[in-house]
Design brief:
By secondary structure, this protein is an alpha/beta fold. The chain is built from 10 helices and 9 strands. Helices cover 37% and strands 20% of the residues. Helix 6 packs across helix 7 and helix 9 runs antiparallel to helix 10.
């Protein structure tokens, strides 16, 4: 496994991989890797493509009230996990490489980026779309892998790729969960023991609503009664994130709720009537 920290090294390594392996797959991450990231890397490796994983804590997707310094980092652990799972190349740029002085272009996506996380975190998807566009331009992958836990993010990236006619495919990978149903996230480590024990209730509420056991308003109330601060709990069209009144093919139930200092995101497929 090769680690590139400069654009020159990245270009050389990508050229060698393209010549020897053909297809390239990219797994964009912000590090602090866990089994959810491992599933993305394994899906890319299993596809037969030479797998490139990027590790970059992107300042552009953090809001003014969000502390980027608090985001967990574990370079040694990340590199060990990637090497053990067949990653061929790790791209680890610094901020100056990704956003050099004089940069004047950013990507604003409408449609699926406008509501939910887009409303709760203004500018977040601008940062996501911009960094992904840069990574796609740097690595030139044939496909890129995104976890379905961040459903809205993956749909925003899909829309950007489609609208800008970028020559790659976006591959979604099913959410990886703890045994009790909690979606894996680098931020879960900030939950207290009491909060961690309560956190799986979010997935349970989504699952119950998908089965028709609770209405959306009942699910919100139950979560708030359990100590969550529910931001949204909604039924949406999967690709567009438009709120809908009844389940239909491809619909998703999406939720965001704060538990202590941690904002939890999750989603499940909605069962069509």
């Amino acid at each position: 496994m090769f680690v590139a920290r400069t654009l020159s090294d990245l270009r050389d390594a990508v050229g060698e991989l393209r010549a020897s392996r053909g297809a390239l797959a990219l797994v964009p991450t912000m590090g602090a890797l866990h089994d959810g990231h491992r599933a993305l890397v394994r899906a890319a490796v299993t596809s037969g493509a030479a797998t490139v994983t990027s590790i970059f804590v992107n300042p552009l997707q953090f809001g003014a009230t969000e502390d980027i310094s608090r985001y967990p980092r574990d370079e040694a652990g990340d590199l060990a996990l990637l090497e053990a799972n067949g990653c061929a190349l790790v791209w680890m740029p610094d901020v100056a490489t990704m956003y050099p002085d004089g940069d004047a272009t950013a990507i604003d996506v409408g449609g699926p980026a406008e509501n939910w996380e887009g409303a709760a975190r203004p500018g977040h998807f601008r940062g996501v779309a911009t960094v992904c566009a840069k990574l796609f331009g740097q690595v030139r992958p044939d496909r890129a892998y995104f976890g379905e836990k961040d459903w809205q993010q993956s749909q925003v990236v899909r829309r950007m790729v489609s609208d800008l006619l970028l020559p790659l495919s976006i591959i979604g990978v099913e959410t990886v969960r703890e045994r009790d149903g909690l979606a894996m996230s680098s931020r879960n480590r900030f939950l207290s023991a009491t909060e961690r024990a309560r956190a799986p209730l979010l997935h349970a509420a989504l699952t119950a609503a998908a089965r028709g056991e609770h209405t959306l308003s009942d699910a919100r109330r139950r979560l708030n009664d359990a100590g969550f601060e529910v931001d949204y709990f909604a039924l949406v069209d999967g690709p567009t994130l438009t709120e809908i009144a009844a389940p239909q093919p491809g619909a998703r139930l999406i939720a965001a709720a704060r538990l202590g200092s941690v904002r939890l995101l999750d989603n499940v497929a909605a069962v069509a009537a």
